[in-house]
């Protein structure tokens, strides 16, 4: 599947019939979400506009006689509150686990830079190609621990959650390999598309699979 912004998603299964069913379900879900989003934007646009007018009026009064005044520290907190509010509304209106999972994957996919930074991509690919298992594991672990703190901490929480998902594999059919295939190209991708993308994708998945299998060693409990 290729999205409008050029993002590509790989659907794999032994049965063509199941792949076709997935494709139809995804297409229907996109149509329904697009319709819901349009309705939400229409219903919120008038409220946002009136709020902006009131905010602009208030700022004009506050900034009188203060040229170049900087916004107060509450601006960032206000933006974060809006994001939390919209996320809460989304989860409440769409409690289906598949929709929520898709939204989470889309969030990580749409990040300007993936959780595994572009600067580390070739190092992870080189590490996963090492023939010696012990050295391969050690190199991947050291690379993960060298990531910037926000990336490392987010990956730790994400992989620990994914391990809990895998523990219920008999019910949700999500094995280590399945999770790695779904999230490998989303979490670890090159800055520019390479000519050997199918082979590169295999290595991306293998990196995620190794981290999942050795999660407790790579991300030891605090």
Automatic annotation (TrEMBL):
Domain of life the protein comes from: Eukaryota
Biased composition (Basic and acidic residues): 50-66
Ranges where the record places region Disordered: 44-79
Sorted UniProt keywords: GTPase activation
InterPro entries registered for this protein in UniProt: Rho-GAP, Rho_GTPase_activation_prot, RhoGAP_dom
Pfam families linked to this entry: RhoGAP
Domain (Rho-GAP): residue spans on this chain: 1-219
PANTHER family listed in its UniProt record: RHO GTPASE-ACTIVATING PROTEIN 27, RHO/RAC/CDC GTPASE-ACTIVATING PROTEIN
Protein known as: Rho GTPase-activating protein 27-like
Organism expressing this protein natively: Galeopterus variegatus
Gene name for this UniProt entry: LOC103582067
């Amino acid at each position: 599947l290729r999205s409008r912004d050029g993002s590509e998603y790989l659907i794999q299964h032994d049965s063509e019939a199941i792949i076709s069913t997935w494709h139809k379900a995804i297409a229907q879900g996109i149509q329904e979400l697009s319709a819901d989003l349009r309705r939400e934007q229409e219903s919120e646009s008038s409220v946002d506009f009136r709020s902006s007018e009131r905010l602009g009026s208030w700022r004009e009064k506050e900034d009188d006689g203060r040229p170049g005044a900087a916004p107060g520290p509450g601006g960032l907190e206000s933006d974060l509150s809006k994001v939390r509010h919209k996320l809460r509304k989304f989860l409440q209106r769409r409690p289906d686990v598949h929709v929520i999972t898709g939204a989470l994957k889309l969030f990580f996919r749409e990040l300007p830079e993936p959780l595994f930074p572009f600067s580390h991509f070739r190092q992870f690919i080189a590490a996963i190609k090492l023939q010696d298992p012990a050295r391969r594991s050690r190199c991947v672990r050291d690379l993960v621990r060298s990531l910037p703190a926000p990336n490392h901490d987010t990956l730790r929480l994400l992989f620990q959650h994914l391990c809990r998902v895998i523990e219920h594999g008999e019910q949700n059919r999500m094995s280590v390999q399945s999770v790695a295939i779904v999230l490998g190209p989303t979490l670890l991708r090159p800055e520019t598309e390479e000519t050997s993308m199918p082979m590169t994708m295999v290595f991306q998945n293998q990196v995620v699979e190794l981290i999942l299998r050795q999660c407790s060693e790579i991300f030891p409990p605090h």
